[in-house]
Amino acid sequence: MSKRFDYFVVFAEMRTGSNFLEANLNAFPALSCLGEAFNPHFIGYPNREECLGVGEEARNRDPQVLIDAVKHARGLAGFRFFHDHEPRVLETILTDPRCAKIVLTRNPVESYVSWKIAQETGQWKLTNVAKRKDAQARFDAREFTRHLEALQAFQLKLMKRLQTTGQTAFYVAYEDLQDVEVMNGLAAFLEQPDRLERLDRNLKRQNPEPLSAKVANFEEMEAALAKTDHFGLGRTPNFEARRGAAIPSYVACARAPLLFLPLRAAPEEEILSWMAELDGVSTDELQRDFKQKTLRQWMRNSAGHRSFTVVRHPALRAHRAFCEHILNKGPKCFSEIRRTLRRVHRLPIPQEGPDDSWTVAAHRRAFLAYLDFVKANLSDQTAVRHDAAWSTQAAILQGMAQFALPDFILREEELEAYLPALGLQVGVQSEGALPQPEPETPFTLADIYDAEVEARVAEAYQRDYLVFGFGSWK
């Protein structure tokens, strides 16, 4: 029967017990763990010049050379991999089903304190208890937060990649390392017939004391950790569909090296008029309908180019989208969605659009109902598509980042100050006032705005309020 795996990787971090795990893996006759083969500062182990005949310089030039060497080593070989190791091989490892994944974890507070003590003592391994060096760690809340965020981000990346490629990993906790049955289970996972009767005991636990004895400012650490939200109670769930970069919507000036990344229902036509004025042309002469290839060509040919987008207050943006795409019938109306909102979501709008009998009170009721729909839609609770006209601006910008982030994110209320400065960035003097957007019809947001409207907008667009720091519209 053919073997499942060509090699293995132990995903771990510093001070998680990876040396002890490696020692016990190497106790199996047909297994060989080769240290930190892709550590950017050495190859395998400190003061080694090569691993499986591959030198550090050759590995840095082409990491795949070492992967191939590990695959063809005697028995089943592997290595330890930390979050800050060679990034060029991570995707190769994660997407290769013939690479067995072992994930070693430890309480991040324990690993952080152990790391701090090792920094103090310079002792990273212990084989003789008589030579053990003593020290206390000093807890730094900011440093620990960075430590924790790096570990969590890496673990989430591993989990997501394994899920999307249909793979599984063998998970080992720090406390499991002392259990010979778990080590033998790991051998079974790696399809090794041999079993251990006892564990390798050459490596000793360096700091067996409780945390209260190992941390100099233990009370300060307790107070800091009490603020940590272990269960994500403060996290805002986000079920909004991910968006693409929407490159065909990008617009470049006719001559100036300036690129606009519009957000739907935010300032757009007035920006295009300003861009045309920069070059003394009509808006029809602006460069549009980009694809990835043509946009890259424009970027290569436009030395010193700048890109920008403009965000709008969620209340004003939501009201414009409501008026243009849902309430009023016209060239921008989403007719099918409009019918669905009237029929399924009971949106109180007239079938043929508002007429002279449409009142401010009716407009306000309809807008509030629309906001309820948007909230449900962005929470993935409706069958209607997630349209860019009412998606959060944060999600649209996140989609843009898949291709390239804009150089500038401007706010609508600050355009008069920042657009001239942006023009100077590309060597063009901007003169004249910015064209004002067409008012919404049949009523403006100011006509219906109050505390309830603001609260409903904030419920639907809490992500934008959080990301961009928006306050109440008025």
Task: Please describe the structure with a list of short key phrases separated by commas or semicolons.
474 residues; alpha/beta; Rossmann fold; 2 domains; five-stranded parallel sheet; four-stranded mixed sheet; 19 helices
Average pLDDT for all residues: 90
With strands numbered from the N-terminus, the spatial order across the biggest sheet is 2-5-1-6-7
Q: Low-confidence runs (pLDDT<50, min 5 residues)?
A: none
Q: What's the helical proportion of residues?
A: 40-55%
Q: How many individual β-strands?
A: 11
Write down the secondary-structure element order.
EHEEEHHEHEHHEHHHEEHHEHHHHEHHHH
- Tell me the β content: 5-15%
Largest sheet data: 5 strands, parallel
What spatial form do the alpha-carbon principal axes imply?
elongated
Give the oligomeric state.
Answer: single chain
Question: How many domains, as an integer?
Answer: 2
Q: Rg from C-alpha positions? A: 30 Å
Tell me what the structure shows:
There is one protein chain. The chain is an alpha/beta fold and 474 residues long. It has 19 helices and eleven strands. It has helices spanning 18-25, 56-61, 64-71, 87-95, 108-121, 141-164, 180-189, 211-214, 218-225, 269-279, 292-301, 314-327, 335-343, 360-378, 393-400, 415-425, 445-448, 451-460, 462-468; strands spanning 7-11, 31-33, 50-51, 54-55, 76-81, 99-105, 170-173, 251-252, 258-260, 306-311, 408-411. The strands form three sheets. A five-stranded parallel sheet has the order 2-5-1-6-7, sandwiched between helices. Strands 8-9-10-11 form a four-stranded mixed sheet, with helices on one face. The protein has a two-stranded antiparallel sheet with strand order 3-4. Helix 14 packs parallel to helix 18 (451-460). The chain is elongated and about 90 Å long.
